[in-house]
Design brief:
This protein is of the alpha/beta class. Helices cover about 35% and strands about 25% of the residues. Bound molecules: S-adenosyl-L-homocysteine (SAH).
C-alpha cells in the first residue's frame, strides 16, 4: 500500500475508534443512570430496568444537550416542553405494571422517549401530542429506532383516541387540573391510569387510578411537577 492510502486508512481507523468510544460512553452513562438513579430508589421492575438500560435517551434530545441526557433531571425538548427526569419515567411506567401487547394510551408524546420505553417492553402504544412539530420529531426518532408498535398522532389529548379504545392503561405526561372524563371512559374495566393532577406551574399529585366495576379508585403516589396539559395549542 502506498503512503497516501495508508494515511487515509489510519485516519479512518482513528475516526472509527473515536466514534466507538463516544457511543460506548452513552452506553456506560445509561447503565450508570439505571444503577445510581433507579435501582437505589424504588424501581424494582425487571422489565422497566431493562428498557431503561436499552432505550438511547440521548437520541430524544437536541445534539447540544445529549451530554446531559443521563443526568437526574428533566431536559428541554423545545416549545417550552420537557422530557421527564429518568426516574419519573421509570416510576410511572413501573406503576402500570406493563407487559407485552398491553394496549397503552399516552397523552403528551413530547420527545417520544416515554413511548419508546413502553414500546421496548412490547406494549402497543398510542400516543397523542398537541404540537405538530413535536409529534413529527418523535415520529422520526421512533422510526429510526425501528419501533413498529408505536402510533403517534397530533391532536388534543383531552379527547383521547376513541377508535382504539378501550385501553388497558393510560399514562398522562402533562398535568391537567382535573382528570379528563373522556380518558376515564376510554379506560378498560380493571385498567389503570397514571396522571399528574393539579394547578399549572405548581406542585401536582401523581395519581394512580383504577377502574373497578365502573367505579374509580384513586391512590396518590407522589408530589410531582409537570408541564400543564393544554386546553388548546
Ligand atoms: N412524555 C414526553 C414528555 C412529555 S412533556 C416524553 O417522553 O418526552 C408533556 C407533553 O405534553 C408536551 O410535549 C406537550 O406539548 C404535551 N401536551 C400538553 N397538553 C397536551 C394536550 N392537551 N394533548 C396532547 N399533548 C399535550
Amino acid at each position: 500500500m502506498n503512503t497516501p492510502k495508508k494515511t487515509v486508512l489510519i485516519i479512518l481507523l482513528i475516526f472509527a475508534a473515536m466514534f466507538n468510544i463516544w457511543a460506548q460512553n452513552f452506553d456506560y452513562l445509561r447503565n450508570k443512570m439505571v444503577d445510581e438513579q433507579l435501582k437505589t430508589r424504588d424501581i424494582k421492575s425487571e422489565v422497566v430496568l431493562k428498557a431503561m438500560r436499552t432505550v438511547p435517551r440521548h437520541l430524544f434530545v437536541a445534539d447540544d444537550i445529549q451530554k446531559f441526557a443521563y443526568t437526574d433531571r428533566p431536559l428541554p425538548i423545545g416549545l417550552d416542553q420537557t422530557i421527564s427526569q429518568p426516574y419519573i419515567v421509570a416510576f410511572m411506567t413501573q406503576s402500570l405494571d406493563p407487559y407485552p401487547k398491553m394496549k397503552v394510551l399516552e397523552i403528551g408524546t413530547g420527545s417520544g422517549y416515554q413511548a419508546a420505553i413502553l414500546a421496548e417492553i412490547g406494549c402497543e402504544v398510542y400516543t397523542i401530542e398537541i404540537f405538530d412539530d413535536l409529534a413529527k420529531n418523535a415520529k422520526k426518532v421512533i422510526s429510526k429506532l425501528k419501533y413498529k408498535n408505536v402510533y403517534i398522532k397530533s391532536g388534543n389529548g383531552y379527547e383521547g383516541w376513541q377508535e382504539h379504545a378501550p385501553f388497558d392503561a393510560i399514562i398522562v405526561t402533562a398535568a391537567p387540573e382535573r382528570i379528563p372524563e373522556k380518558l376515564i371512559e376510554q379506560l378498560k374495566e380493571g385498567g389503570q391510569m397514571i396522571i399528574p393532577v393539579g394547578q399549572q406551574h405548581s406542585v401536582q399529585s401523581l395519581i394512580l387510578l383504577t377502574k373497578i366495576e365502573g367505579k374509580i379508585i384513586e391512590k396518590e403516589l407522589k408530589s410531582v411537577k409537570f408541564v400543564p396539559m393544554l386546553e388548546k395549542k
